[in-house]
């Protein structure tokens, strides 16, 4: 049985992430030891030709790191990046400033209530949905399913809770040791730990079950390293 987790209301993640926007990108590889494999696991899940004209929705897109991976893999894809933190989106706007007009659009919004635009080919998210409480996660999965075209793909690169408190403690300690070994500064680690106070983690098994409950097919986890997992599902077509 998964251990009990806090079902808090959605915390105000906007100010937390706005404060970290300027340093966010430079600490990513230290904080995510499997950075390349983790983000790199998402584009192959789309299973479309590289020249496909896809609509892609990135939920909790932050500074645009995941969208950037997909933009390289699918040069004709168009993106909507949604995030609750204006300063994070501002970094994303700068990242994609040289892209053709209209290829990247940005929306300031809370994904717990944001009206997802319909007929999306691909919906992705990285390290963001775990900021919602569990009911809001389940509701979001249902809304993502409804927003996808038949055959459309959802992929979530996510931080997951270990199945037991002992395993969670061990994973947290192992992660702290890894990020220290990667040379993170005390200040950057403290900022990351402060942001993590807004985490509402769920186990991988819970999230896989919620995707199936929402109607997704072909639900599976394709990458797992420590607390980092990538899982996916497809709207039946
Ligand atoms: C750890 S960052 C990940 C950003 C980006 N997806 C990445 O992988 O680099 C989490 C992001 O989720 C955003 N976020 C947290 N709660 C949110 C919510 N309820 N609605 C929209 N964005 C949210 C934060 O503002 C932040 O940009």
Secondary-structure blueprint of this entry?
Blueprint: H1 13-24, H2 28-31, H3 35-40, H4 43-46, E1 55-59, H5 65-73, E2 78-83, H6 86-95, E3 104-108, E4 120-126, H7 134-147, E5 148-159, H8 165-181, H9 186-195, H10 204-213, E6 217-225, E7 228-234
Parallel strand pairs: 1-2, 1-4, 2-3, 4-5
Antiparallel strand pairs: 5-7, 6-7
Bound molecules: S-adenosylmethionine.
Helix/sheet category:
alpha/beta
* Strand arrangement across the biggest beta sheet: 3-2-1-4-5-7-6
Poorly predicted residue ranges: 1-9
- CATH class bucket: Alpha Beta
Write the H/E string, N to C: HHHHEHEHEEHEHHHEE
Give helix % range. 40-55%
3D architecture notes:
The chain has one domain: Rossmann fold (3-Layer(aba) Sandwich), CATH 3.40.50.150. The chain is 41% helix and 22% strand. By secondary structure, it is α/β, with parallel strands linked by helices. S-adenosylmethionine (SAM) binds next to helix 1 and helix 5. Residues 10, 13, 17, 60-63, 65-66, 83-85, 88, 110-112, 126-128, 131-132 line the site of S-adenosylmethionine.
Descriptive keywords:
237 residues, alpha/beta, Rossmann fold, 7-stranded mixed beta sheet, 10 helices, 7 strands, 22% strand, disordered N terminus, binds S-adenosylmethionine
